[in-house]
Amino acid sequence: xxxxxxxxxxxxxxxxxxxxxxxxxxxxxxxxxxxxxxxxxxxxxxxxxxxxxxxxxxxxxxxxxxxxxxxxxxxxxxxxxxxxxxxxxxxxxxxxxxxxxxxxxxxxxxxxxxxxxxxxxxxxxxxxxxxxxxxxxx
Length: 138
What we know:
This protein is mainly alpha-helical.
């Protein structure tokens, strides 16, 4: 699975680089960056219909780019589901790790067995027992 993802990633980067070059080679209406890369040379290579060839090539590269994007998203989703299923299976096979239970409080010999330690000593918050800090002003 990871080999297929790596191959798709390499193709993805190559297609992205080719798209950048082809888009920059296209002749804009204002002769911008296309002139810097020698737009006249492309007319000699592809003929007078250079813009049509570059537009078609850009269209094909864009289609391949989006197909690779979709394929990579599906592969990554499948890879993460498979790895989480693998983790779940591993966790099932491992013994359960629980925290040790707190030790039971030793009851005094005079205490009745019906009272539990929680009933014997109620919990009182510190705010309830604190004395007021300020003296009242008259």
